[in-house]
């Protein structure tokens, strides 16, 4: 069972104190997310991505004591990663142009980063199927705690609530409750980013 | 914005369909994960080791300083005349405060200055100050106040007003006594104000109890929420005053800034509550635990209490909920 850290600040405090379990939680939670953040920005070059993510997380370790909890930990890591991507692209001429993703546009970046906050965005439509797919996956990565994982386990992998509970090291009731909160958070996040319900996003993808 | 369907079943099925359509997120390869983990772990370990080294180094420096201080003190005790007893330190001055002992003219006081037995301190009509005692007792000095430190446990208030915030652990045996021409006031672990009006004094009790002794020797206890007026002839009248009454605001103005850096959110909330006469109420044990775990960074210098509270909470996962005026309700944000 993974130890729980109620806030990003609590997790960072434990890491600064040398807590090995906290490092494990940090790495297992954020490495895949930062990897998925970097990969499309590097033209899906897996080797480049590995290098950039490594330098991002190494820089994060050096600056860990300066993390003030003003933004979510993942947003802070993305900020570092963006700079690492830019440095990498400058240093490696084989990538002739910077990959500008739709979720790097200011309005959408703000919407993605405000997922935990109130929705106040205008509707955004007209994304292609591939862009929509990646944006929905970005939304899953931005959800708090293990919400993205439980949604995937339940609806994509088809695992039972008991299995999810076992994976998380919690009882069936707690897993059920986490799943319900994850559904609500995901629905609200979709509204924030797309200005549409899940069925509208789905209809847009199937056009 | 498209309106969400109100049918939860239909919403859940569309979420499920959307997730299936989108598919699982890409997972990095196990090799990439292993390699990056090794590099990041090494960096993290180096950072932790460096912090431990720095902490040890600071501890050694403090220990060395203490040894030097003890040696100097021992030397001074043997060969130098005994110094006047330090009773308190000045921690905040808003405006100007002067101090004088019996042998010298008044000089401008400064933050950090030691307050010694025998000194007389004075603020003018637009200045306030705050002193702290080794016991943790905080003394706030209002406008136009003059007082003398008669002993390490007695202050003679000649004019103006003093506010005392004594920690509850401060035993009444070594409590500070405020003497005035109309009588004296001794606290029993409390927050209170003593204000002079010509020959009379007004004692307002915000928390705990105080013992008011008139010049004819009669004792009266003042309870939290009471205001006692004592005349020079020993006549006593009582009225009521809430802990959040605007009368207390000056004491918060005179308070030294609370340094939030590296403090827990819970400690900050306790400070705000104590300074504003309220108490903190958590919506759940989880919310209380979260407040204990959150470490704060930065500064609230220049912000009033409510603005500081709002600014600090906005950086955390906690927020206020509506409560009666005398409470600060804290809950986890959704």
Tell me the layout of helices and strands.
The complex is a heterodimer of chains A (207) and B (334).
Chain A: H1 8-16, H2 20-38, H3 46-62, H4 73-91, H5 106-113, H6 129-142, H7 147-156, H8 161-168, H9 172-194, H10 198-206
Helix pairs in contact in A: 1-2, 2-3, 2-4, 3-4, 6-7, 6-10, 7-9, 8-9
Chain B: H1 8-22, H2 30-79, E1 86-94, E2 97-100, E3 107-108, E4 114-116, E5 120-123, E6 128-132, E7 138-141, E8 146-151, E9 154-159, E10 161-165, E11 177-180, E12 183-187, E13 191-197, E14 200-207, E15 209-214, E16 219-223, E17 226-230, E18 236-240, H3 249-254, H4 265-275, E19 279-282, H5 285-293, H6 305-313, E20 318-321, E21 327-332
Parallel strand pairs in B: 9-11, 19-21
Antiparallel strand pairs in B: 1-4, 1-6, 2-3, 2-5, 5-8, 6-7, 7-10, 8-9, 10-13, 11-12, 12-15, 13-14, 14-17, 15-16, 17-18, 20-21
User: Remind me, CATH topology of the largest domain in chain B?
Assistant: Jelly Rolls
Strand content of chain B: 25-35%
The tally of structural domains of chain A comes to 2
List low-confidence stretches of chain A. 116-124
Q: Structural class of the helices, strands and pairings of chain B? A: alpha+beta
Give the termini separation of chain B.
22 Å
Instruction: Please give the oligomerization state of what you see.
Output: heterodimer
CATH superfamily of the largest domain in chain A: RNA polymerase sigma factor, region 2, helix turn helix motif
What's the level 1 CATH class of the largest domain in chain B?
Mainly Beta
Indicate the radius of gyration of chain A in whole angstroms.
18 Å
Tell me roughly what share of residues is in helical segments of chain B: 25-40%
Element pattern of chain A in H and E:
HHHHHHHHHH
Q: Largest contact between protein chains?
A: A-B, 60 and 49 residues
- What is the residue-averaged pLDDT of chain B? 84
Number of strands of chain B: 21
The CATH topology assignment of the largest domain in chain A is: Rna Polymerase Sigma Factor, Chain: A
What class, by secondary structure content of chain A? Answer: mainly alpha
Kindly report the average pLDDT value of chain A: 80
